[in-house]
Design goal:
This protein is an alpha+beta fold. The chain is built from 10 helices and 16 strands. The strands form 4 sheets. The chain has a 5-stranded antiparallel sheet. The radius of gyration is 55 Å and the shape is rod-shaped.
Length: 522
């Protein structure tokens, strides 16, 4: 009856299975999101490094273009400047006219020579024209005329007012600049695998020539105009801003692969969890039946123990009068010669009844005698492990932590059935008393030739001064129970030559210690 009431108070087994399955599912879901986040972070780091390398490549191209432009400008300045000064020198000796300037320009690979005098202007070839005004306003520097595909350089006249302007065809320099310039570098970057688009916003400064030290660009994920997932990177490039759009399809494929793995894992988890739940449920049901059988047998043993003690008390009170009655009847048979045969027959019948009653009392005394265990060598740690395996589902279900420290050298001589009964009593009492979230500690060690088994649990409701009362028969602090468990355990331990000790490590915590001798003669 007690076991049935206790079972009705416990939550159904399927609820524990559902909680365990939900916890596993939550762990798998958390693992999936962690893996997805790590994959996205790894892709962003890789894309940032890729964008930085591309930005460095653009900067190197731009730096080369600027250096080439500077070198070309220096060469053109020296060449055109020397040509203009030479023309000025010759013109100061003998002034040029148009035909002579055209011939000199053709011989010097110049496209035009223009001499501006105070009174006149001479140009050769005469038919060379440009939309820009050519005068002496800009001297000692290169003058670029994109529409005429020409580069001019002017120097002041050495004698009098005026100047000399010389020019050359700029088509080859323009082609060179287009080949090594920044637009070509951007076009080359746009053709690389994984690059969707590249743009340079703003104007670059000459700081390109002094070096570059930029960190990883900032990466953001977005959608392109066609709906593709792209990684957008932005990096500073010498005062301008380089914007890249990189293909993020590897990340999308990785996400899809992780999703498939997650779905497959969840399906496997559901199938295996369902099968495991069914097996565990069957095992738990079998264990519940086995536990109920244990409790019924233990209840019978308790009833028999109480009956035995009552029988011992009754036999003690009845046997002495029976002995007196038997002695009196025997004396009457021996000394009363005047008794008739019928009376003697009556005395014999009464004497036989007394003997039968005495035999019944003797049987009751034999039933109430102390326990006589059979002594065999057994490993107490293995016995504890077996018992814990039976209580593992109950411990987990009650949300009680278990901490065990079992010494392998725990050989004792005793009755395995009786010792198993002791362990069953101790574990059940601990589980019934321990609140959820508490810790159950079991220790087994060898000390001074004895084997010490300790079991600590929370839930003690008695003060330390009254803890010994729980060893008394019929004493219990539980609503249900007879109070014979520890009393029977103490009798069994005592029958093995051991002792059962009770201590209170701290208020509300009970420590039960079973000390058993390691040798049978102990």
């Amino acid at each position: 009856m007690d076991a049935d009431l206790g079972a009705r108070r416990l939550p159904p087994p399927w609820l524990g299975h559902l909680l365990v399955f939900g916890l596993l599912f939550a762990l798998v879901l958390g693992w999936f999101f962690v893996q997805t986040r790590q994959a996205e972070r790894a892709f962003q780091d890789d894309a940032g490094e890729h964008a930085r390398l591309l930005a460095d490549a653009v900067i190197l191209h731009a730096r080369g273009a600027l250096l080439a432009e500077e070198a070309m400008g220096h060469i053109l300045t020296r060449f055109l400047g020397q040509s203009a000064r030479f023309v000025d020198y010759l013109d100061s000796i003998a002034p040029f006219h148009t035909e002579e300037l055209a011939a000199f320009a053709a011989e010097a690979s110049l496209s035009v020579i223009r001499i501006v005098r105070a009174d006149a202007t001479v140009q050769g070839p005469a038919d060379w024209e440009t939309a820009e005004a050519l005068d002496c306003a800009s001297l000692e520097r290169l003058i670029r005329l994109p529409r005429a595909h020409a580069i001019l350089f002017g120097v002041a006249a050495s004698q009098g007012r005026g100047c000399v302007l010389v020019g050359m065809d700029s088509r080859q320099t323009e082609a060179l600049e287009a080949a090594i310039g920044l637009p070509r570098a951007l076009a080359a970057v746009a053709e690389l695998p994984g690059v969707i688009s590249v743009r340079l916003l703003g104007e670059t400064r000459n700081a390109l020539a002094t070096g570059h030290n930029a960190g990883l660009p900032q990466i953001t994920l977005g959608r392109a105009a066609d709906g593709r997932l792209v990684a957008q990177a932005s990096a500073p490039v010498a005062g301008a801003e380089l914007r890249l759009e990189l293909d993020a399809s590897p990340l999308q494929r990785m996400r899809a692969r992780l999703w498939w793995e997650f779905i497959v894992f969840v399906l496997v988890l559901v199938l295996t969890g369902s099968a495991g739940t069914w097996v565990l449920y069957r095992h738990q049901r079998a264990h519940e039946r086995q536990r109920l059988g244990y409790e019924r047998r233990l209840s019978r043993q308790r009833e028999e123990a109480g009956l035995g003690r009552a029988a011992a008390a009754i036999a003690h009170e009845i046997r002495n009068p029976l002995n007196a009655m038997a002695m009196g009847l025997q004396r009457l048979q021996m000394e009363a010669e005047e008794l008739t045969a019928e009376h003697r027959r009556l005395l014999e019948l009464v004497r036989e009844a007394v003997q039968r009653t005495n035999g019944t009392v003797t049987g009751l005394l034999d039933y109430a005698r102390p326990i006589q265990p059979r002594r065999i060598s057994l490993a107490l740690d293995a016995l504890i492990v077996d018992q814990l395996s039976l209580y593992a589902p109950a411990i987990t279900k009650a949300r009680i932590g278990l901490e065990s420290s079992l010494s392998p050298s725990s050989q004792v001589f005793g009755d395995p059935d009786l010792l198993r009964q002791v362990l069953d009593n101790l574990l059940r009492n601990a589980l019934e008393a321990s609140p959820a979230g508490s810790l159950l500690q079991i220790g087994l060690a060898r000390l001074d030739g004895e084997t010490w088994l300790t079991l600590e649990n929370d839930g003690l409701e008695l003060p330390a001064g009254e803890v010994e009362r729980i060893l008394e028969p019929w004493f219990t602090t539980k609503t249900l129970g007879t109070g014979l468990g520890l009393a029977i355990s103490q009798r069994i331990v005592s029958a093995h030559g051991g002792r059962l000790l009770l201590t209170v490590p701290r208020p509300g915590r009970l420590c039960v210690t079973v000390v058993l001798p390691a040798r049978p003669n102990d």
